[in-house]
Write a structure and sequence with these properties.
This protein is an all-alpha fold. It is built from 11 helices and no strands. Helix content is 67%, strand content 0%.
């Protein structure tokens, strides 16, 4: 969705990494905002004001939470540039959906992170095989599947041999930290299908690594 079509506030622009308060800088200085970001009452109030179209509240919500959301996106996408692009989509969603938040949905920061994670899933599905696995993802997959370590190139090759569905499921489960239920819900697929993809991926990776 184009920012203008979304009703994005013209007087609010998200900082880029060239700015002192760009997302990467907010990650680096997260310790100074962690206390406020964890103050759920403050975030709930900011979301409520954002739902009423309060641009100042929205800018403050971004300042307090962008570092945490960027970290989630960077972990899932393994790219600063991709994470920054998706972060803007996340905050467009927050601007549009702030009124949908309620405390019954859990803590405000948890709700914001869920938006970030689902936006990252959309990005992963668009990128498909063009998006490489990062080193930390390979390590997580090797550990989770009890695969031999120390040969990241071979593991990368083995992952590339998986079907797109198997590859995305493995990526979400062991790099994104999603449960199988969450993967099924986000991909709009039956839970049994997702379990089958992951089980078959495990067998294929083990056979490939043993060759």
């Amino acid at each position: 969705m184009h920012l203008r079509e979304s009703g994005w506030p013209a007087t609010v622009s998200l900082p880029s990494d060239r700015d002192d308060q760009g997302p990467r800088q907010l990650v680096a200085t997260a310790s100074s905002t962690d206390t406020k970001a964890q103050d759920d009452d403050a975030l709930v109030a900011l979301l409520s004001r954002t739902a009423d179209g309060d641009r100042v509240a929205f800018a403050e919500l971004y300042r307090l939470t962008a570092g945490a959301l960027f970290a989630v996106l960077k972990r899932m996408l393994s790219s600063n540039e991709a994470a920054e692009d998706v972060l803007q989509d996340v905050y467009v969603s927050v601007w549009l959906k702030a009124g949908e938040y309620s405390e019954q949905r859990g803590r405000a920061l948890t709700w914001l992170k869920s938006i970030a994670r689902y936006r990252a899933i959309d990005a992963l599905r668009r990128l498909g095989r063009e998006r490489p696995f990062g080193d930390h993802e390979l390590e997580s997959i090797a550990a989770a599947y009890a695969l031999p370590t120390g040969d990241e190139r071979k593991l990368h090759h083995c992952i590339d041999e998986l079907s797109a569905d198997q590859r995305n499921s493995v990526q979400l489960a062991y790099a994104g930290g999603f449960t199988q239920q969450e993967i099924a819900a986000s991909l709009a697929m039956p839970l049994g299908t997702v379990k089958s993809w992951i089980r078959r991926a495990l067998g294929a990776l083990k056979r490939c690594m043993d060759r």
